[in-house]
C-alpha cells in the first residue's frame, strides 16, 4: 500500500492535494537550483584549492629567501632586532579586507597595503649593512604579501568548504527526505481519495438498494391496501392530476412547434 | 728603538695574542666546517665549547658561545696589560660601549625596562657602571649619568646636548659618537711610538673611509640631509678632506665612484663589486652586498698585515677584529647549514 513511508500529517482533501503538488514542484525547482549552486561552489573550491597549494609552495620559497636575507643582515650589521623594533612607530604594512561574492556566498578577501611613508628605520645600519637591511626588509614585505594572499585563500577555503557542506546537506535533504515525503503525501492523499470514492460509490449503491427495497415494500403494501379496499367495494382511482387520464403522461414540452416561433 | 723596552711590559701579552692568532681557523678548517659543522669544530681551538649546549643548536647559541670565547681571551689580556697598552685596549672596547649606550638610550627613549637590555649588550662593551645607566628614567637623567659614569663622556659632551638625544635620530647620534671616537682613537694612536701609530693609522684610516662611504651610499633616498651627512664623516682617513667634501655632495653611486677615483684600492672595490656607472640605482642595490664584502676582505687583509710587524700594539686591535670576523664567519656557515643554502656557504671571508 502506498503511504508506508513518512508523510506529512495532512487531511486527505483535494485542497491539500493541490497544495502538496505545488510544494513538490517548489521542492524540485529548489533542488535543481541548489545542485547548480553546489556545482558552481565546487568549481570555485577546486580553483582555490589549487591556488592554496601554489601559494603554500611559494610561501615556503619566499620565507626561506627572507630568512636567508636576514642571515645576511646579521652577518654584516650584527643584531639589529631591538633597534628595528623600537624605531617602528606605526605599521607600514596593513591589511584591508573586502568582500567577494561567489554564488551568494560572501568571501572575505585581504589586500596587503604598504604605506608610502614607511621609512621609519631606513637609517638603521647607516654605517654598516644599510643596503642589506633595506633588501631584507623588501624581501620580508614580499613574504608578508604572500602570507596575506595565503590567508585570504585559506579563509575562502574554509568558508567555501562549510558552505559546500551545508548546500550538499540541503540538496541531499531535499532529494532524499523532502521530495519522497511529498511524494508519499500525494500518494496517500490520492489513495485516500480513491478509497473515499469507492466508499461513496458503495454507500450510494447501498442507499439505492435500500430505497428500491423500501419502494417495493411500499408498493406491495399499497397493492395490498388497494386489494383490501376493492374487496370492501371501494373503487380505486388513479390520480389523474393535471391532464391526467388517458392524455396523462404526455410530454408537456413536446406539443409541436408554435407557429409564431421562428426558430 | 721601541723594541728595546717593549718586551718588558708587553712581550708576554704579544706572545699570547700571537698564540691566539695561531688558533684562528684556517681555510682548511672552514672548508671542513662547511661539510660537518659540529664534528669539525671540536677539533679546532673551539674544542668542546658547544659540549654542554642542549640540542638543537641554534645559530644564535653558536654566535653567543664564540663571542664569549673572544671576550674571555680579550679580558685575559686586558687584565695583564700595563700602560699604555691598557689604555689602548680600553679604546678598543669604546666602540662596543657606544653601541651599548645607544641601545640603552633607545630603551630609555621608548620607556622600556632597560634592565632587560643589559643582556643584549655586547659583552666587550660592558663597563662596571653600566647598570647605573638603567636607573635613569628619562633622557635628561641618562645624558647626565652617561657624562658622569662612562668613559664616553668626552664624545657625548662634544657632539650632543641632552635635547639632541630626544630629537635626533638614534642612528645619527650613534654615528656622531663613532666619528668622535675614531678621531680620538686616532689622535691617541699618534702619541704611541712609531710602529704602532703607523699601522693603527692605516687601519683606522680605512675604518673611517669605510664608514664615510657606507654612510654616503646608505643615505641615498633617506631623509638624511647632505649637511647632516657631512657632519657624520670622520675627519681622518685617506678620503679626508677633499674626498669627504665630494662625498658630502654626492647624489648617486656614480658621484661616489668619482670621489674615490684617486685612491686605487677603493676604486677597485667598486669595480669588483660591479657598481658600474651604467647600472643605476638598482645595480647599486644588487651589488652593495658584495661591496660590503670587499670592505670586509680589505679590513681582514689590513689586520693580517699588522701581524707582520713585531713590537707594536696594533696586533691586539687586529686580533679582536679578526676574531670578530671569525665569529661572523661561524655564524654565517651555521646559518647557511641551518637554512640549507649550501650554494652560499662559501661566501665567508677566510682569515688565514
From TrEMBL, chain A:
Region feature (Disordered): 211-263
Keywords, comma-separated and alphabetical: Ion transport, Transport
Basic and acidic residues bias (residue ranges): 213-243, 254-263
Source organism superkingdom: Eukaryota
A Pfam family this chain is assigned to: ATP-synt_D
The UniProt record lists the keyword DNA-binding: no
Matching InterPro entries: V_ATPase_D
GO molecular function, one term: proton-transporting ATPase activity, rotational mechanism
Coiled coil: none
UniProt record similarity statement: Belongs to the V-ATPase D subunit family.
PANTHER family: V-TYPE ATP SYNTHASE SUBUNIT D
Protein name (Swiss-Prot/TrEMBL): V-type H+-transporting ATPase subunit D
Organism from which the protein derives: Kwoniella newhampshirensis
From TrEMBL, chain B:
One function term, GO molecular function aspect: proton-transporting ATPase activity, rotational mechanism
Pfam families according to UniProt: vATP-synt_AC39
Annotated SUPFAM superfamilies: V-type ATP synthase subunit C
Keyword annotations of the record: Hydrogen ion transport, Ion transport, Transport
Entry's Gene Ontology cellular component terms: proton-transporting V-type ATPase, V0 domain
Keyword check for Ribonucleoprotein: no
Domain of life, per lineage: Eukaryota
Family: Belongs to the V-ATPase V0D/AC39 subunit family.
Subunit structure as annotated in this protein's UniProt entry: V-ATPase is a heteromultimeric enzyme made up of two complexes: the ATP-hydrolytic V1 complex and the proton translocation V0 complex. V-ATPase is a heteromultimeric enzyme composed of a peripheral catalytic V1 complex (components A to H) attached to an integral membrane V0 proton pore complex (components: a, c, c', c'', d, e, f and VOA1).
Known function: Subunit of the V0 complex of vacuolar(H+)-ATPase (V-ATPase), a multisubunit enzyme composed of a peripheral complex (V1) that hydrolyzes ATP and a membrane integral complex (V0) that translocates protons. V-ATPase is responsible for acidifying and maintaining the pH of intracellular compartments. This subunit is a non-integral membrane component of the membrane pore domain and is required for proper assembly of the V0 sector. Might be involved in the regulated assembly of V1 subunits onto the membrane sector or alternatively may prevent the passage of protons through V0 pores.
Name of the protein described by the UniProt record: V-type proton ATPase subunit
Organism: Kwoniella newhampshirensis
Amino acid at each position: 500500500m502506498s503511504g508506508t513511508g513518512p508523510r506529512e500529517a495532512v487531511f486527505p482533501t483535494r485542497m491539500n492535494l493541490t497544495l502538496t503538488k505545488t510544494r513538490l514542484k517548489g521542492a524540485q525547482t529548489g533542488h535543481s537550483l541548489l545542485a547548480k549552486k553546489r556545482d558552481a561552489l565546487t568549481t570555485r573550491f577546486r580553483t582555490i584549492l589549487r591556488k592554496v597549494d601554489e601559494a603554500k609552495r611559494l610561501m615556503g620559497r619566499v620565507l626561506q629567501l627572507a630568512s636567508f636575507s636576514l642571515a645576511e643582515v646579521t652577518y654584516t650589521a650584527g643584531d639589529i632586532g631591538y633597534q628595528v623594533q623600537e624605531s617602528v612607530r606605526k605599521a607600514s604594512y596593513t591589511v584591508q579586507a573586502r568582500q567577494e561574492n561567489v554564488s551568494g556566498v560572501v568571501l572575505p578577501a585581504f589586500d596587503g597595503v604598504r604605506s608610502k611613508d614607511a621609512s621609519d628605520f631606513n637609517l638603521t645600519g647607516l654605517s654598516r649593512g644599510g643596503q642589506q637591511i633595506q633588501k631584507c626588509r623588501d624581501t620580508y614585505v614580499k613574504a608578508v604579501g604572500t602570507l596575506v594572499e595565503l590567508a585570504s585563500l585559506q579563509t575562502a577555503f574554509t568558508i567555501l568548504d562549510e558552505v559546500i557542506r551545508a548546500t550538499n546537506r540541503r540538496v541531499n535533504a531535499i532529494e532524499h527526505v523532502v521530495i519522497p515525503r511529498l511524494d508519499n503525501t500525494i500518494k496517500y492523499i490520492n489513495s485516500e481519495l480513491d478509497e473515499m470514492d469507492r466508499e461513496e460509490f458503495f454507500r450510494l449503491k447501498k442507499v439505492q438498494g435500500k430505497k428500491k427495497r423500501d419502494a417495493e415494500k411500499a408498493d406491495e403494501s399499497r397493492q395490498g391496501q388497494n386489494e383490501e379496499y376493492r374487496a370492501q367495494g371501494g373503487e380505486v382511482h388513479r390520480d389523474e392530476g393535471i391532464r391526467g387520464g388517458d392524455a396523462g403522461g404526455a410530454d408537456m414540452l413536446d406539443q409541436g412547434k408554435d407557429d409564431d416561433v421562428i426558430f | 728603538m721601541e723594541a728595546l723596552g717593549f718586551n718588558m711590559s708587553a712581550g708576554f701579552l704579544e706572545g699570547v695574542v700571537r698564540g691566539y692568532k695561531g688558533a684562528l681557523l684556517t681555510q682548511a678548517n672552514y672548508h671542513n666546517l662547511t661539510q660537518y659543522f659540529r664534528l669539525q669544530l671540536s677539533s679546532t681551538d673551539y674544542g668542546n665549547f658547544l659540549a654542554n649546549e642542549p640540542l638543537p643548536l641554534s645559530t644564535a647559541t653558536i654566535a653567543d658561545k664564540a663571542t664569549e670565547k673572544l671576550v674571555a681571551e680579550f679580558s685575559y689580556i686586558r687584565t695583564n696589560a700595563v700602560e699604555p697598552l691598557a689604555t689602548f685596549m680600553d679604546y678598543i672596547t669604546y666602540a662596543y660601549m657606544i653601541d651599548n649606550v645607544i641601545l640603552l638610550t633607545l630603551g630609555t627613549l621608548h620607556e622600556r625596562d632597560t634592565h632587560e637590555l643589559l643582556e643584549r649588550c655586547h659583552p666587550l662593551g660592558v663597563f662596571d657602571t653600566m647598570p647605573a645607566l638603567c636607573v635613569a628614567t628619562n633622557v635628561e637623567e641618562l645624558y647626565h649619568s652617561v657624562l658622569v659614569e662612562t668613559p664616553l663622556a668626552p664624545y657625548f659632551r662634544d657632539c650632543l646636548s641632552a635635547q639632541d638625544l630626544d630629537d635626533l635620530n638614534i642612528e645619527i647620534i650613534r654615528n656622531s659618537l663613532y666619528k668622535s671616537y675614531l678621531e680620538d682613537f686616532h689622535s691617541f694612536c699618534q702619541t704611541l711610538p712609531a710602529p704602532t701609530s703607523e699601522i693603527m693609522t692605516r687601519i683606522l684610516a680605512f675604518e673611517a673611509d669605510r664608514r664615510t662611504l657606507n654612510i654616503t651610499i646608505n643615505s641615498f633616498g633617506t631623509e638624511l640631509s647632505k649637511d647632516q651627512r657631512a657632519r657624520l664623516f670622520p675627519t681622518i682617513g685617506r678620503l679626508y678632506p677633499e674626498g669627504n667634501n665630494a662625498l658630502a655632495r654626492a647624489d648617486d653611486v656614480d658621484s661616489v665612484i668619482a670621489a674615490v677615483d684617486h685612491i686605487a684600492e677603493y676604486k677597485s672595490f667598486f669595480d669588483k663589486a660591479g657598481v658600474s656607472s651604467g647600472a643605476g640605482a638598482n645595480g647599486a642595490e644588487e651589488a652593495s652586498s658584495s661591496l660590503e664584502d670587499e670592505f670586509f676582505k680589505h679590513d681582514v687583509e689590513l689586520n693580517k698585515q699588522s701581524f707582520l710587524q713585531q713590537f707594536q700594539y696594533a696586533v691586539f686591535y687586529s686580533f679582536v677584529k679578526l676574531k670578530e670576523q671569525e665569529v661572523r664567519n661561524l655564524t654565517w656557515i651555521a646559518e647557511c647549514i641551518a637554512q640549507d643554502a649550501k650554494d652560499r656557504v662559501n661566501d665567508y671571508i677566510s682569515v688565514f
